[in-house]
Amino acid sequence: MVTSGNSERIEILSAEGVGRTLSRLASQVLECVGEVEQLLLLGIPTRGVQLSAVLARFLQEQSGQAIAQGTLDPTFHRDDLERVAMRPVQATELPVSVEGRDVLLVDDVIFTGRTVRAALEAIQAWGRPRRVMLLVMVDRGHRELPIQPDFCGRSVPTRRTETIELRLLDIDGEEGVFLRSVQAEK
Q: Terminus-to-terminus CA distance in the chain, angstroms?
């Protein structure tokens, strides 16, 4: 456990654990998807985009084929913008049409389910996929909508005052999954 200021950071998954988890998730996705050529990964900003890129590498290593990968920003489809911090909108980038494809939405953490609901609505503006699946690194509970991931790296029950952080080597200089708990001032 690391303490800084008024928060604690607890390691849930080490860098090695993240690698093992992504390898397992990639295997599960490949078992589920019939034709890899029809698979399209769409990362949900912000961390889902980077996670999607890393997952695409694992999928390519295991399947021997390049995996189509893009970005889907559901910001304008959210129903809770007044309650969540607004971040800069990221462009939706689709390397291929979603029409008739197996689309795998990728996000770092699922919490209330509202981001995924917005992503499902956003994807409909781009066509009709054959199937939409959801992969998350961490499910922290507290769902407000009946949305569950098809592929989940780890379930970590949390308090509402806690957060989960996915750190990736490519952007953060470290890798792991951490639980951050903000403590009250004394």
A: 20
Nearest Cα to 23, choosing from 118, 140, 151, 164?
A: 151
Determine the Cα–Cα distance for residues 116 and 54; give it in Å rounded to an integer: 20
Q: Can you give the pLDDT of all 186 residues of the chain as single tens digits?
A: 555 556 789 999 999 999 999 999 999 999 999 899 999 999 999 899 999 999 999 999 999 999 999 999 998 776 665 555 565 677 889 999 999 999 999 999 999 999 999 999 999 999 999 999 999 999 999 999 999 999 999 999 999 999 999 999 989 999 999 999 876 544
pTM score, two decimals? 0.90
The dihedral through the CA atoms of 74, 13, 176, 164 has a sign that is: positive
